Predict the structure.
Amino acid sequence: MIIAVVGGTGWQGAGVAVRIAAAGHTALIGSRDVERAKSLAEKLPAALDLPAGLFDAATNEDAASRADIVFVTVPMTAHAMTLEAIKPFVIGKIVVDVTAPVNPKNQIENLWPPEGSATQQAQAILKGVADVVGALKNISATALFNYKKPSNCDILIMGEDITSKHRISSLLREMKLNSYDVGSGEICRTVEGLTSLLIYLNYAYHLRQPGVKIAQIDPGLDFIPTDGILPGT
Ligand SMILES: NC(=O)c1ccc[n+]([C@@H]2O[C@H](COP(=O)([O-])OP(=O)(O)OC[C@H]3O[C@@H](n4cnc5c(N)ncnc54)[C@H](OP(=O)(O)O)[C@@H]3O)[C@@H](O)[C@H]2O)c1
């Protein structure tokens, strides 16, 4: 399968491209400048011990047009205009929106769009054209680059269409990433807001690239609240 990464020359996009190639798909790196994309597509295989034939390069529009699935990994400030640029080339496709609305000038602040979140903005722009799934909002590029190990972070995925979410969830599994479907566009603001929270934790506690992990209570706990203890139960 050919999978495009629009804005794929940044850290997050390159990390996504690495996991796509490691899963055996063609990672088509998109950029506004095809030479930047080519340079990265040439460097990544040797740097990460992956076959060169699994990387390719194109302009963002060309990448979107040639791909079966399109990831978008651009800063919030470029989000709407990038989606408008690829819109004619994603008809009937799944667009995976990775963009988090973090303010590039102050990463613990968010630049919320009027639609509510980045993924809701993508859904509005691509309405009737492509199905938008929000994913990979909280995982660090460093975790993505380390493709040889399954990540210890979970991926929260959002969107309206259950079939598209299943397709992306199984692609993420091929990329050694475990995901949870957490609902529709409505939940995106909550999930995207976690990215700036994680960046804050990174700075405040010197954590190494924190991510999201859905935890259950310890199965060894002795006391599990049951009916009959609280009044009226
Ligand atoms: N980095 C992380 O660890 C991480 C983690 C979670 C979520 N995210 C989210 O993932 C997205 C990408 O992150 P990143 O760190 O990879 O970002 P980035 O390096 O700032 O940007 C990614 C690419 O977007 C393109 N771009 C930049 N400014 C643009 C503009 N004004 N117009 C059009 N294209 C522009 C550039 O590609 P060309 O110049 O080649 O066109 C750039 O290489 C962001 O929304 C970020 O919040 C990042």
User: Anything to note?
Assistant: Residues 2-205 form a domain with the Rossmann fold fold (CATH 3.40.50.720). The pocket of NAP is lined by residues 7, 9-13, 31-33, 36, 73-78, 82, 98-100, 102, 137, 140-141, 195 (CB under 6 Å). The mean pLDDT is 96.
